[in-house]
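step=encode ok
step=design start
structure_in=
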């Protein structure tokens, strides 16, 4: 809906204004020239002082009120309701017909009564013009009084002039605007209103964009006055309401001597200065048109704001793929030894001290490290994990510290942040810390001491706030004595130590772990038939050494689920897998002998053998592979059953 307002000096013009507006709208729609929906508001105000500006998209105004509104910048177009030649001629003819040749005065602004005297002489009417400089009652009264002193017998004017003339006993005539004037003004108002709406929508979008900009922006015009400033500038400069600075001198915004010096400098500037309780980055850019200066734009950044935004960017850009997936709730245990370890880990989580997690391969060092991170005040930030043994030295260095553009052949054009940067405000987990080369250990030590890094090929020091959790399955103290691990790094890392028990030291957890793994793999495979283990099965599993610890047990459970056939014996399959799957020999210094059998000789049911053989059309090699046994074992079992028959 496009809203049009018509400001008229007296109420008698309202009916004509309404009639012409409706006729104009109907004709444009009938001719299919304009299908826009319009509304009309008519406001009666003889002077600007009486006028309450309506909420509209275009205003039609007459006479002195039009001039007043044009002098004050309006956000909507103001269209003049012109008193055209036809209106003037009709008025002069009415004057001659009603009053004859008596001297008359016509009151108005220059735009209303220009050329009236010449036209009056042509029509043989005695009319003198009296112009008032502003549309106020006092100025109009002066004109009426002067006309009376000059011997004028009739006053022609607007509503106020006619009312004052009648108070003085002089007859009066209203200056009217006819149908043609209203028609033309309404046509112009509709066009200007639609253009105004589009432009104001653009301005609103631009205003919103600038107000949501990260930088503070201030525009200065050619007269060294503030023409614009966004909300960021208000906050950074710690000012009050924006409106009170628009159109004011530069000094009203840039109040300190340093800022005034920067803003008044003829050349473009880029400086960092102290301002109140912070530091500001201030940049100026001059504006020119046709080679002549027309103003300047100032951009401002708050140092604390830059740091906060940088932290947010680091978190946003690198958060994906660097989250802790596990917490202490994911740890399955009833072992007193493990429960004590978890309580110790929870206490460590409340600190920022470095931690070394010691445990054999497969004991869950990363899982408990993730749990420590998730339990700490850093939980909402990144958990970055790196296996130090998985990369060669040159790649390990670039992964940890990152690099700048052109640091080496093949480096990305934009450079790359290292894992230390990505872990800022979070945790970095360095698995197999013992495998870091000696040269790189020195750089790692500096990171732990200074909490800052420098990218490969760069010269900028980047401060970081990280918590380091290192993991090892080796005795680092022995490596120090052997000269393979720096003693200063060893003492810097070993602030807190967490020793994870091997699975053979928490055998009571094996049934719980097996049940959890079996459910997990059955759900993954979409299997609904329950796979139940007996007490004897669990005892067999508890008797195993599990030299690969929980990882080996997890892999075993996966094989069990994948090979199990509904209706067959779980115990037979489990015993078979235990008999055909042996862990590598343990290192004597790490493992002690485990009581009980370590191997089991089992036989699969004869029906299972026959069923698989039929599926494989008697091919014993394929049948053995499908059963997960050797061809010799299959031959032995078949021979046994045939002998029993």
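sequence_out=
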């Amino acid at each position: 809906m496009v809203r049009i307002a018509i400001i008229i000096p007296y109420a008698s013009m309202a009916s004509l204004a309404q009639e012409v507006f409706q006729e104009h709208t109907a004709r444009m729609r009938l001719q299919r020239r304009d299908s826009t929906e319009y509304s009309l508001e008519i406001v009666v105000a003889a002077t600007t002082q009486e006028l309450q500006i309506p909420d509209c998209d275009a205003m039609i105004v007459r006479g002195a009120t039009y001039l007043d509104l044009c002098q004050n910048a309006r956000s909507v177009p103001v269209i003049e309701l012109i008193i055209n030649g036809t209106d003037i001629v009709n008025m002069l003819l009415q004057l001659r017909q009603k009053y004859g040749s008596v001297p008359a005065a016509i009151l108005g602004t220059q735009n209303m009564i220009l050329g009236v005297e010449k036209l009056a002489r042509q029509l043989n009417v005695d009319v003198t013009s009296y112009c008032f400089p502003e549309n106020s009652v006092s100025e109009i009264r002066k004109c009426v009084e002067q006309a009376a002193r000059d011997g004028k017998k009739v006053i022609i004017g607007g509503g106020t002039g006619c009312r004052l003339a009648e108070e003085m006993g002089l007859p009066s005539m209203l200056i009217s605007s006819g149908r043609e004037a209203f028609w033309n003004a309404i046509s112009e108002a509709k066009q200007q209103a639609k253009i105004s709406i589009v432009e104001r929508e653009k301005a609103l979008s631009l205003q919103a964009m600038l107000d949501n900009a990260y930088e503070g922006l201030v525009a200065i015009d050619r007269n060294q006055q503030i023409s614009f400033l966004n909300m960021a500038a208000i906050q950074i400069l710690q000012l009050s309401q924006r409106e009170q600075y628009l159109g004011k001198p530069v000094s009203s915004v840039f109040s300190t001597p340093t800022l005034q010096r920067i803003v008044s400098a003829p050349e473009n500037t880029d400086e960092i200065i102290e301002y109140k309780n912070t530091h500001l980055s201030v940049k100026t850019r001059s504006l020119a048109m046709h080679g002549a200066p027309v103003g300047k734009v100032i951009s401002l950044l708050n140092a604390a704001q830059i740091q906060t935004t940088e932290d947010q960017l680091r978190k946003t850009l690198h958060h994906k793929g660097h989250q802790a997936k596990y917490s202490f709730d994911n740890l399955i245990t009833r072992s007193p030894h493990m429960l004590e370890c978890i309580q110790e880990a929870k206490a460590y989580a409340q600190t920022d001290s470095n931690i070394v997690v010691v445990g054999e391969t497969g004991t869950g060092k990363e899982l408990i490290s993730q749990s420590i991170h998730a339990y700490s005040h850093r939980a909402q930030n990144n958990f970055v994990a790196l296996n130090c043994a998985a990369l060669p030295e040159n790649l390990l260095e670039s992964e940890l510290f990152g690099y700048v553009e052109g640091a080496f052949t093949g480096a990305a054009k934009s450079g790359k942040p290292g894992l230390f940067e990505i872990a800022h405000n979070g945790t970095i987990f360095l698995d197999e810390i013992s495998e870091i080369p000696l040269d790189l250990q020195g750089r790692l030590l500096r990171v732990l001491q200074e909490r800052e890094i420098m990218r490969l090929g760069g010269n900028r020091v980047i401060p970081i706030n990280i918590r380091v959790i290192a993991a090892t399955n080796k005795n680092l103290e022995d490596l120090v004595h052997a000269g393979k691990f720096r003693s200063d790094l060893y003492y810097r890392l070993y602030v807190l130590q967490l020793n994870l028990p091997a699975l053979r030291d928490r055998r009571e957890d094996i049934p719980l772990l097996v049940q959890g793994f079996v459910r997990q793999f059955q759900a993954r495979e979409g299997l609904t038939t329950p796979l139940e283990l007996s007490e004897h099965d669990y005892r067999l599993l508890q008797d195993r050494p599990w030299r690969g610890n929980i990882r080996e047990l997890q892999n075993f459970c996966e094989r069990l689920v994948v090979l199990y056939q509904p209706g067959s014996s779980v115990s037979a399959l489990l015993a078979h897998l235990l008999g055909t799957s042996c862990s590598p020999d343990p290192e004597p210094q790490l493992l002690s002998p485990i009581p009980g059998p370590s191997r089991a000789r089992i036989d699969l049911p004869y029906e299972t053998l026959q069923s698989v053989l039929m599926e494989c059309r008697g091919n014993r090699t394929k049948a053995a592979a499908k059963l997960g046994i050797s061809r010799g074992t299959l031959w032995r079992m078949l021979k046994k059953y045939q002998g029993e028959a």
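step=design ok
step=annotate ok -> Confidence is low (pLDDT under 50) at residues 582-602.
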